[in-house]
Amino acid sequence: MIQRKQTVFLLLAFIALLLCGIFDQTFGFLCGWTIGLSLVTLADVFLYKNRKRQNLLCLVLMVLAVIYYVALAVFNHSQGGQLTLTWPMALPAVAIVLLFMAHKGIVHDEKLVRSLDRIR
Asked: CA-based Rg of the chain, rounded to a whole angstrom?
């Protein structure tokens, strides 16, 4: 169902990634990266009928958000280490936490459905 708690976490992760893409103007590639991640996160909200796919996509999104920080470190190193940290750069970390919480909710729902199938 779309009113599950992981839907709220996914929507908050969408907002965090979108805000990062809009306000973080450090590197153009990373802005596009976070906006793309936010759109995939929004698409993940509507996969509620297929929990296994939603769970897999949630894990992939967490890995891609970590890659944001790896790319940020690489670009910072290539610029001579003169990057100033700003608040939008912390938003993907918030999104990673929210995606992890959504992942836990999806796993919990999957276990609940399996246990109810055994009762029938």
From this structure: 16
